[in-house]
Design a protein that fits this description.
Elements lengths: L5 H14 L14 H9 L5 H8 L6 H9 L1 H5 L1 H9 L5 H8 L4 H8 L6 H14 L5 H10 L2 H8 L4 H8 L6 H8 L6 H9 L7 H9 L5 H7 L5 H7 L7 H16 L10
Helix pairs in contact: 1-2, 2-4, 3-6, 6-7, 7-9, 8-9, 9-11, 10-11, 10-12, 11-12, 12-14, 13-15
């Protein structure tokens, strides 16, 4: 006797998954066949908690995630849309349009979800930065403390002392973010001074070089940084046209003095 056709059984399970009432759906959540899962995602009897349960599976194919996104419950349910964006396999064409509808701190959660693709995180960060001007100051300060490093760096460009301090203390902020900030034209002097005095960042070698070349760094601070810098790096810094001429002269004089104080080369013993 011939065994039943596997494809026939698959089609039968998919057909049932697409129309079964809620009390008969439990076995389908453990399915592995994408055809059955896609049919389940189209089932009109699914409610919010069913879609969220399905989205807990990180192995869902993109086809199934597209079906979930098209479900009537997903269209009107905020939590389902948020879970879709945070799912590691959601196609970009599904997740990117949803971002503009998410609340600010849910966008932060998206940025901090390791499995979310990098390009989706970048769009989420851009969306956050577009929204920050419309939120109360207290929320901006909180955002500066908790957001991604890129968002914290964007919030750093301000003349609000508390907001600057919160951004500089952000655990996701990196030296690379700050180097890009210091390269900005018309950066507020308060940002430069706060960075130059910061307990953590003011001791970073490459940040000190960037501060030396920045025209808004006070001369007295520049002078305190010079002894710890390599002469060759200081000479390179002096090629930056943004550097004030007075600072350039001090730096070059410092380099000349250090070179003149170098001990003479040792000669072989006779």
């Amino acid at each position: 006797m011939r065994s039943p056709d596997p494809k026939g059984r698959l089609a039968e399970r998919a057909e049932k998954a697409a129309v079964a009432p809620r009390h008969e759906l439990v076995p389908f959540f453990a399915e592995t066949a994408k055809e059955v899962l896609a049919a389940l995602a189209r089932n009109p009897n699914l409610q919010e908690r069913d879609l969220l349960r399905l989205l807990e599976r990180k192995d869902l194919p993109g086809e199934v995630l597209r079906e979930i996104a098209a479900h009537k419950e997903a269209a009107r349910n905020y939590n389902v849309r948020l879970a879709l964006v945070r799912h590691p396999r959601t196609p970009r064409l599904v997740s990117l349009p949803i971002l503009k509808f998410l609340y600010l701190f849910d966008l932060v959660r998206v940025c901090q979800t390791p499995a979310v693709p990098t390009d989706v995180k970048l769009v989420a960060e851009e969306t956050i930065l577009r929204k920050v001007e419309t939120i109360p100051r207290g929320e901006r300060v909180n955002l500066a403390r908790r957001s991604s490093g890129r968002v914290a760096a964007g919030l750093l460009v301000t003349e609000d002392r508390e907001l600057i301090a919160a951004a500089l203390d952000n655990p996701f902020l990196s030296e690379a973010h700050l180097l890009r900030v210091l390269a900005l034209e018309n950066l507020p002097a308060l940002v430069v001074e706060s960075l130059a005095h910061h307990e953590k960042w003011s001791h970073r070698y490459h940040l000190r070089l960037a501060l030396i070349r920045n025209p808004r760094t006070p001369l007295q601070l520049v002078l305190t940084f010079l002894p710890d810098m390599a002469v060759n790096d200081l000479r390179d810094v002096c090629l930056d046209r943004r550097m004030p001429e007075q600072v350039r002269r001090y730096v070059l004089a410092h380099c000349a003095e250090r070179l003149n104080k170098k001990p003479p080369p040792m000669t072989p013993a006779e």
